């Protein structure tokens, strides 16, 4: 399976920085009680911040014709977004 070249992948890793920053803010808000109400906006912000590197990886894998990498990214992204949207939790918990 063809891989994305190392130089491009090193540059793409920087796109995960907004996800890390948002996650740190959410954790600090919950632990230290900063009253930022991270419970309401945190999940949406993480979903949007995660879309940036996922789209970049998809574009790069298409341009470099790395179809296996593209398929893997799309599968992982689908599972991640379904998990963040609590689809799996809603399947297990009956509606009352």
Written overview of the protein:
With 96 residues, the chain is mainly α. The chain has helices at 6-12, 17-32, 38-63, 67-84, 87-92. The radius of gyration is 16 Å and the shape is flat. The mean pLDDT is 93.
What are its keywords?
single chain, 96 residues
SS-based structural class? mainly alpha
pLDDT averaged residue by residue: 93
Please summarize the sheet with the most strands.
Answer: none
**Which overall shape is indicated by the principal axes computed on the Cα atoms?**
flat
Give the topology string: H per helix, E per strand.
Answer: HHHHH
Number of helices: 5
Distance between the termini: 47 Å
What's the quick description here?
The protein is mostly helical and 96 residues long. Helix content is 76%, strand content 0%.
What is the element layout, followed by pairings?
Elements: H1 6-12, H2 17-32, H3 38-63, H4 67-84, H5 87-92
Helix pairs in contact: 2-3, 3-4
């Amino acid at each position: 399976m063809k891989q994305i070249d190392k130089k491009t992948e090193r540059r793409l890793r920087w796109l995960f920085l907004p996800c890390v920053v948002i996650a740190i803010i959410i954790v600090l808000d919950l632990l230290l009680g900063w009253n930022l109400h991270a419970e309401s906006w945190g999940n949406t912000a993480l979903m949007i911040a995660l879309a940036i590197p996922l789209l970049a990886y998809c574009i790069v894998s298409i341009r470099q014709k790395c179809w296996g990498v593209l398929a893997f990214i799309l599968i992982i992204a689908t599972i991640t977004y379904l998990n963040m949207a609590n689809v799996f939790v809603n399947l297990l918990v009956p509606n009352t």
